[in-house]
Specification:
- This protein is of the alpha/beta class and 496 residues long.
- The chain has two domains: 5-266 and 472-491, Aldehyde Dehydrogenase, Chain A, domain 1 (3-Layer(aba) Sandwich), CATH 3.40.605.10; 271-460, Aldehyde Dehydrogenase, Chain A, domain 2 (3-Layer(aba) Sandwich).
- It is 39% helix and 19% strand.
- A seven-stranded mixed β-sheet has the order 14-15-16-13-12-18-19, sandwiched between helices. A five-stranded parallel β-sheet has the order 9-8-7-10-11, with helices on both faces.
- Helix 5 runs parallel beside helix 6 and helix 10 (281-293) crosses helix 11 (313-325).
- The longest helix has 21 residues, at 112-132.
- The protein is globular and about 75 Å long.
- The termini are far apart.
- The relative contact order is 0.14.
Length: 496
Amino acid sequence: MPLTHAQWQQRASQLSFETRAYLDGEFTHAASGKTFPSLNPATGDTLAQVARCEAPEAERAVACARAAFDKGDWSRLAPAARKRTLLHLAELIAEHQQELALLDTLDMGKPITSALGDVASAIECLRYTAESLDKLYGQVAPTGEEALGLIVREPLGVVVSIVPWNFPLMMTIWKIAPALATGNSVILKPSEKSSLSALRLAQLIALTEIPKGVFQVLPGFGTDVGKALALSMQVDAIAFTGSTQVGKLLTQYAGQSNLKRTFLECGGKSPNIVFEDCADIPCVARQAAAAIFHNQGEVCIAGSRLLVHNRIREPFVRALCEAARSMQPGDPLDPQSFMGAIVDQEQYDKIASYIALGEQQGARREAIITDDNRQVEGCFIAPTIFTGVTADMAIANEEIFGPVLAVMGFDDEEEAIAIANDSDYGLAAGLWSQDVNRVIRVARRLQSGQVYINNWAGPDMTMPFGGVKQSGNGRDKSLQTLGEYTETKSIWLAIT
């Protein structure tokens, strides 16, 4: 039975936090003794002081990861055995699902209902990946009788996973599941804004048969521990989700060191296109609102650019505002809250500055009147809808990462495609129409790694997740990720 608001508050008051780094199978403080605060953005309270890892911890973790990989207890373990261990981990996560969701809610402000969904997605990813890994075969090249050509895939070695703060546990599992499944040693660098669930995950991993050194967690800041890991000559790959700016830095660090692989999933400014023949304006408007206001708009694939055919634009905006009335922010521990708190004051100020800039540049901020008169303190921002937006405005082309929607009109298909593709990003796109020929035609022309037709963010674990252009080149989910974390080796055997 679902817990009530009061029950979640009680559980939150009883929660304890692991705050130490997880290095070579042990929990340890940073060598410097430094820490950084984990803050609850809904209240401003300090939850804990977390170990601040720096270059010494990075060097030690890489050495341990390399030693564990070379030893082969995990990297050369039979796929079926690795599968059993990862399935065990999935069961442990399932047993602690509420606790893990609560950690993410307290740490970064997302509603508890959303956090529970994130943990469920993480479990699905882990189970899917584990079940897949012993069902993939190598290849035999079509040679003559004088030779045998084998094409095999081997783990890369040491993989650094750098994950964002907006979906802490889910994105962690998206990264580490395929990396571990294929036999790599993994060093996880969680965001300094949301490290607590990663460290709890390390406690659960310590209960499995994953050997020490194969999985490690280094909390800290990207400018020190993250940079040190990215520049290491002993790291073979970086899997990253975060801003385009940081993604570009990681690519530079890879080039300055050992040309390590970089799998990047970066920013987005995703267009959501509604044609004049959309079947149900109120229904589509609700889904378009959820596409931007879910998780406080702190979503890389948020449908932050809404393109609506001018023939239906006015009634659609009215329906959009009506939908937004039911999506107000509230206490993240209240299961009825659609939105929670913005992750921290820095992100709050950034979003607020974009809202002010939108008005300064001439966009119209639509009034959304609610019947809820609660005074909510903390880092909360209500759903914000701008109309009269033009392509040259900052709110139309820069990633805000907050609950701010830019609405633009169009007159025909060609104009919609041109507006949608006029972006540095290409992570996701959506379109709504009952014309089958149109949706296929437009989907093929949109410059995006994924296109949602008559839905938003619908794909399951069988579909790759990632972008094009400055949204990066990496892919999460699906069987494709197992290939990314492996190296192709050709073996040629001469038969005499």
